[in-house]
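Q: Protein A?
A:
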Amino acid sequence: MSKDTDMHSKNEGEGSRTAAKQYNDATKKFVESGKVESAAKDAERAIEGDEAEELKRAEEKGRSHAKPHEEKREI
């Protein structure tokens, strides 16, 4: 079994170092791409425009699965 295959088949449980590294690498790549400002403006237009109600419903649905102490947390 290759090292790469072994990494993907091993259950790391909660707090997966592999997943954390993948997330951090992707985040760094996105930030370095210079697309952050554009994405932020797109998000602002979405929450202030036609998508506002749909996004609000999605947020409420997501919060319905949250633990009680997290339901009122601001994002």
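Q: Protein B?
A:
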Amino acid sequence: MLFCVKVLHGESMEVNILSISIKSPSKVPKCKVLELDVDWNIEYRKMESKKFNFLCNIKAYGELSFEACVEGEINTEKDYNKIPNFVSISIVKNLMNSIPKLISHAQQFRIEENVFIKPNVSLAS
């Protein structure tokens, strides 16, 4: 998943999601509009000039309770010492728009037993 955050005067930051781990609810509600209370935090680590890694933890409460841990990276045009707060809010907002869709897809995704196991092949003639 990739998205850009506009900063100032046309400058942007590229946000790449590297991994998402979701502890999804046992039941997904059918309604399309959900009201959730959300606790979140993001920890940033500067890797090099113009590049940060981040770890975002989200816990949502309500009709669709879930927990998510997201790892990603941010590439900036300018060399920042600290990521601005509005970037964190933008990351969480984008994730909150995407995670319920991912949970819905995961509920529909099932792997059939033995789907990757091929029958024994004999080379004898």
